[in-house]
Amino acid sequence: MTDTHIRASASGVGRPGVGWAVPAALFFGLFALVPLLLVAVLSFASWNGLTDPEFVGLDNWRKIFADPVMLESLWLSVLLTVLGVAVQTPLSLLLGVWAAGHQRNRAVLSAIYFVPLLLSAAAVSVLWRAVLDPNFGVPAQATWLFGDGNLFGHQSTAIGVLVFVSTWQFTPLHTLIYQGAARAIPPVLYQAAQIDGAGTVRQFFHITLPQLRNSIITSGILMVVGGLTTFDTVLILTQGGPGTDTTISAYYMYQKAFKSFDYGSASAVGLLLVLVATIVSLVMVRLSGYDKMRSQMEGL
């Protein structure tokens, strides 16, 4: 085949037409952009859900930033997010690399480990609320380990429970990301390293980790966005308690909207969470250089 024929064949393979993106764009616009626009409008209005909204300017924003509970909720959201990333990243990375290998019974163990990924956050929270119940749960039967058994009665232990439950549920997702990425690493790299005398640990740090860079960034962004916007786990496990010690921003928004019927302030909190999560994601992408990575098959 001549070069002309090759170029002609290659020119026939290009990006899909714009029409293929129309259904997804309409869905995203209708269920994401339009609600976000309405939330942005309500953040500058006073509305109790019954009467007509009344424009109040920046009053809602001044109100939430003057509330010490709101400021504490921002700190708690950041704390839970950082703890989640610090615990889930190394755990899911090691499990993903292990699951990508050819160990005996690996497929069976991986299938069992991925079971939490099939459950909803509400179901997982209800399960662990029962298991850790201070009256009839495991802590009540093992006071030698858990003290008074009330893990939800102290801020430090309540935060620990939230981090543990989130890790138990979402680590399998990130493990799956790392497993797929680890399997895509060319075996020739490890073969060359073995010839040069590199052991398993050295291969992990000099081959596996660099090759998983993009996957680590992707997983990290998912963890950060998920950590900043988590809600149902706190609602079911701690209800923001004890007191307001686990009242994160998403739960604070829920209280403002459905307990105080202050939908204007709740909309301001929701819009703030969207802006923070978006900015943090963009910063992570820019600082990591992820936005400069290009695939050889991009657009195909």
From TrEMBL:
Residues 74-284 form the ABC transmembrane type-1 domain. The lineage of its organism: Bacteria, Bacillati, Actinomycetota, Actinomycetes, Kitasatosporales. It comes from Streptomyces kunmingensis. It is a multi-pass membrane protein. Keywords: Cell membrane, Membrane, Transmembrane, Transmembrane helix, Transport. It is found in: Cell membrane. This is Sugar ABC transporter permease. PANTHER family: ABC TRANSPORTER PERMEASE PROTEIN, INNER MEMBRANE ABC TRANSPORTER PERMEASE PROTEIN YCJO. PROSITE patterns: ABC_TM1. Belongs to the binding-protein-dependent transport system permease family.
